[in-house]
Amino acid sequence: MTTNQHGRDFAAWTGAIQARVEAALGRLLPAPDIVPQRLHQAMRYAVLGGGKRVRPLLAFAAGEVAGADASRVEIVACAVECIHAYSLVHDDLPCMDDDVLRRGRPTCHVEYDEATALLVGDSLQALAFQLLAEYRLAEDAAVQLEMLRMLAAACGSRGMAGGQAIDLGSVGKALTLAELEHMHIHKTGALIRVSVALGARCGAALSRQELENLDRYAKLVGLAFQVVDDVLDCEASTATLGKTAGKDAAARKPTYVTVLGAAGARALAEELRADAHAALSGFGAKPGRLAALADFVVLRKF
Question: Which fold has domain 3-295?
């Protein structure tokens, strides 16, 4: 298959998964006419109709490696996307990053109000765990219980929330590269890593080494995602990004660009991409989607 054919195949697969996840989220989120209507409408506003759905794509790609039933991965994908959406709603609040634009439209607290946005985040987080508990996602109940534990750990003080706390405490400070990586392994990387882990566990049991290789891949992709985000925040426009460009610099936040410079950050992203590909080398041809997603993360323009 030629490079162009590979590209078209990946684009078609990406579009199909994004459409599938959008439809599933539309079914699984509370309907807008159910009481309390305003909260349910705001939840749907925060989740539907935007975003790259990178975490669901990673879950589906990892599920393919394990031969998982797509209907099971679909639930996992919706759960991690609910967590991601909740984190964005809370990150945008005035008490956090205080942003007014997300995915090309007003942030949730601007469109509704701060109290509603807070409840949207709370409700989406709860819904994610409800989904993981309500549907059968693995043959072994112990595996499904472990999936719940993994998602909780990825969201909490030693995962995404902890990374955000470190981020808020780092404003105006000069961090080392190691300190910056520690922050983003938690803030951005934790949910990306668990997306891969949960997708893989929806299928046949993989060996310990295979799971470790997938986790190493996901850790590298999570870091690469943040590196590229930092570069795009400096170089892309607000219209392209769908969120306020230059926000990190204005807020005096340490980024990969402030530590390494734009060229150094781009070089690091390429290094992380190569290492992510290497982590998949033991799987043969099976993880092709994961490899393509590593390329997408690093080469994207938005």
Answer: Farnesyl Diphosphate Synthase (1.10.600)
Token pair 């995915």 is found at 103
Instruction: Quote the DSSP letter at residue 8.
Output: H
**Structure tokens given for 243:** 């969120």
Each residue of 66-106: pLDDT tens digit? 999 999 999 999 999 999 999 999 999 999 999 999 999 99
Nearest by Cα to 222 from 263, 258, 199, 194: 194
Using left for φ > 0, alpha for ψ between -120 and 50, and beta otherwise, residue 289 falls in: alpha
The label of the residue with tokens 């795009």 reads: 232
The backbone torsions φ and ψ at residue 53, rounded to the nearest 5 degrees and listed phi first, read: 60, 40
- Using CA atoms, how far apart are residues 83 and 137, in angstroms rounded to an integer? 18
Q: Based on the number of CB atoms within 10 Å of its own CB, is 154 exposed (0-12), middle (13-18) or buried (19 or more)?
A: buried
Q: What is the pTM of this model?
A: 0.95
Q: How far is CA 209 from the centre of its chain?
A: 24
Give 11-17's long-range contacts (Cβ < 8 A, gap of 24+): 13/289, 14/57, 14/296, 17/53, 17/56, 17/57, 17/60, 17/77
Which contacts (CB < 8 Å, 24+ apart) does range 94-99 have?
Answer: 96/164, 96/168, 97/247, 97/251, 99/243, 99/244, 99/247
User: In this structure, are residues 191 and 80 in contact, taking their beta carbons and an 8 Å threshold?
Assistant: yes
Residue reference for tokens 């998982």:
68
Question: Residue 183 in contact with residue 166, Cβ under 8 Å?
Answer: yes
Q: How many CB atoms lie within 10 A of CB 173?
A: 10
Flag whether pLDDT at 285 surpasses 90.
Answer: no
Candidates 87, 86, 150, 92; CA nearest to 124 is: 86
Domain ranges within the chain, ordered by starting residue: 3-295
